[in-house]
Amino acid sequence: xxRELYENIYKQYKNSVLRINEEDMARYxxxxxxxxxxxxxxGNKPFSEWSGPxxxxxxxxxxxxxxxxxxxxxxxxxxxxxxVHNSIMDFLKNNPSPPDEDMHALADKMGIDPxxxxxxxxxxxxxxxxxxxxxxxxxxxxxxxxxxxEMGIKVxxxxxxxxxxxxxxxxxHLAEIPDYYTRLLKMEKEAGIDVEAELx
Length: 200
Ligand SMILES: [Zn+2]
Description:
- There is one protein chain.
- By secondary structure, this protein is mainly α.
- It is built from nine helices and three strands.
- It binds zinc ion.
- Residues 30, 32-33, 35, 54, 56-57, 59 line the site of zinc ion.
């Protein structure tokens, strides 16, 4: 995979897997008009960080209510998402390093906007990156760059109180990408850059 693709994966990974928890991804509905704020449509910006008002009817943010998982239509949407992810997983199994043209062709075939499609791909790759790769590859602490590991343990302590777990997560990332945390840091500096614009 190209360096550019990796960097996009980190952005998506950071947005979709590491930083965004369930509450951050919650959708909110405008009570007066029914317009829905979905963080996915706003660069994964949580509702709490959005200032409002409703772009459709002008109602203030205070008029919005959270849409729960039991909400109507939600399960169908999740099913659709699952279908998309399954298709992409099948595609990636057969094409581990797909050129952009192939990804766009698949997006066309599935009737998905290419940018949204890439978002799905990066989210999936991000999940794969985080799924215990160090253990799988027999990657050991001494193989990791000590400075990267030190940075990694600090970064991952944001997600756990256990230093041992933090180290394991860091090693998982470094097994895949030896300079993961240098890249993450660079990405953090670039925070605020629109991911979709970057994908152009
Ligand atoms: Zn409204």
